Amino acid sequence: MVIGLGNPGPTYAGNRHNVGAMVVDELASRTRSALRAHKARASAAQVRIGTGPGGVPGPSAVIAVPHSYMNESGGPVKALMGFFSVGPERLVVVHDELDIPAGDVRLKLGGGEGGHNGLRSISKSLGTRDYLRVRVGIGRPPGRQEAADYVLKDFSPTERKELPFLLGDAADAVEMLVTQGLLDTQQRFHAPAAGS
Predict the structure, then answer these.
(1) Could you read off the pLDDT of 172-186 as tens digits, one per residue?
(2) Binding-site residues for tRNA, please?
């Protein structure tokens, strides 16, 4: 199950905090599927993610975006997991990450929430932090801007030009994670760029 975090409604749609939901929209587009309202207070779709050896469609998965506000994400996520009989070890949460440079994608299993209210809500609802995260770098706010204000602002015009590449990379990371596992995906996405 792949969950993209964000806040509901058009006011928040372009915010940095909603990049997880944007990645799930990208996955829906790639799989030619439509997210539909689910009784778990979310939009969800059952899809085949990525491609396996020989071009065979990848494993089946549920992609979803909670309809709750970020700090209440845990309820819908837990309800979806119950409905689709998915354990925490099969959960992938895609979210924005201040502590990663803008444009970078990192993956990890478990660990702290780093002040992220969506992750905190999910960990509390599930009673565990041991689930996979695809962390989409949005960088730190400039100057003295508060982190809370920064994440709730839309991507800047310059960032918006790069956004399709970032969403593409993050969707690639989700596909590879589901089809090839965490270690191989980390090796690809955590490797330093050539020439650096």
Answers:
(1) 999 999 999 999 999
(2) 12, 69, 71, 117
Left, alpha or beta for 18 (phi > 0: left; psi -120 to 50: alpha)?
A: alpha
Known catalytic membership, residue 116: no
48 in helix, strand or coil? strand
Residue 195 in any domain: the answer is: no
Per the domain annotation, does 148 fall within a domain? yes
Q: Which amino acid is at 116?
A: H
Residue of 17, 38, 67, 95 marked catalytic:
17
Q: Which residues are CB-neighbours of 33 under 8 A, at least 6 positions away?
A: 45, 46, 47, 63
pLDDT higher than threshold 90 for residue 50: no
Binding residues: 12, 69, 71, 117
Average pLDDT value for the chain: 94
pTM, to two decimals = 0.94
How many distinct structural domains can be found in the chain?
1
Residue 196 within any structural domain of the chain:
no
Q: Which letter does DSSP use for residue 15 in this model? A: B
